[in-house]
Amino acid sequence: MSFLLLxxxxxxxxxxxxTVLLTDEAPVFSNVSFSTGVIPSGSPxxxxxxxxxxxxxxxxxxxxxxxxxxxxxxFATTGDAGKGYFQLDxxxxxxxxxxxxxxxxxxxxxxxxxxxxxLNMDGRALFDPFALEGSANPRVExxxxxxxxxxxNYSYEIFSGISLDFTAxxxxxxxxxxxxxxWLANEGxxxxxxxxxxxxxxxxxxxxxxxxxxxxxxxxxxxxxTPQVAVTAPFLGTIPLVSFDYPIDLLTDTFxxxxxxxxxxxxxxxxxxxxxxxxxGEVEVEQIATIDVPITNExxxALEGSATIEGDGTFTVYPTQFHASPGGEDGLVVTYAPTEEGSNTxxxxxxxxxxxxxxxxxxxxxxxVKTDQGQDVNESVTASTSGCGCDTTPAAPLxxxxxxxxxxxxxxxxxx
Length: 416
Prior knowledge:
Blueprint: H1 3-10, E1 13-14, E2 18-26, E3 32-35, E4 45-69, E5 73-101, E6 109-127, E7 139-145, E8 149-159, E9 162-185, E10 188-190, E11 197-199, E12 206-233, E13 237-241, E14 246-258, E15 262-267, E16 271-273, E17 277-284, E18 287-297, E19 303-311, E20 315-318, E21 321-324, E22 329-336, E23 342-352, E24 359-369, E25 381-382, E26 391-394, H2 398-415
Parallel strand pairs: 17-24
Antiparallel strand pairs: 1-4, 2-4, 3-4, 4-5, 5-6, 5-11, 7-9, 8-9, 9-10, 9-12, 12-13, 12-14, 12-15, 16-18, 18-22, 18-26, 19-21, 19-23, 20-22, 23-24, 25-26
């Protein structure tokens, strides 16, 4: 195997990077409700809190997607440092009611709503996308600890002669979390940060990767109520209820959710050779015949590669490297110079950065025949090869042949 071929195989190719922008909304706190019941339990006068939440989180992540080859076609994503945004946007609805049970004392009983308010829950965290396993911070968290809110401060006459002195403070702590779970990319899966996935090679002007990113969300609301109640009634006097803390945790289960499907289109080279085989026909011994092999790039990315001959040494190729811009063309010159009578075969091997067909083989055949006696050694001989009708000339010194091939190739490159 030639040195140039080894170098070509060792090269790593990349398509043009594609911008990644992922956004998602997760209803972490939607339809969460809770009732404390009457506290303190069994008291003739108590308080009840009915809670409801709505809203959730927004996630935005920015990065880059890459496609590489040639050993394998691999897809990978890299997040832009600090370009992950995790936003809490929710509210807590709190209804406070006083519950009176004075029937055994000859007084009234019932539940009375005395306050109804909504408390906003917000906060934001920045992180490095995509928060998958193996990243420095695989979990992103927002904690909103607000100051205590005094829900109630009333001196309220429930019935004639019966008054209620009531205060209640509430201290909420809201925690929401986000973690990346995995990327689904065509038939592959990326479950760890900055880990590529191998995809099935395709041949075409573009390589399309359809992806879905999956994230995991969770949320917790921790509340501490501090109610203080005192009631005054003619037949009871004043009944003080000591202040106490009443903690409540409102939990939402951790759930996974898919972001919207994103497709990334990577421009690719697409090598199209002139023919699948080339037949030089009959060529007289010690004469040479040449065939011009066009190489067309029908892709959207520059084509580059190398050309070698495998098989009989009567065939050679020049140059050994080719390059064609998108929609452009390059060319090679293959020479057949039989040294004795008989059939000769070989293969022209085109190794390129086309991942669909990184090695294309073109069969070469020729027949060395006896030189016609009496022919002028300077007389041209024409060989019909694949409709080419290329001229052949008698054998010449190596330097002269190389110079001629170089000139022919240069002319083709100028036409491309």
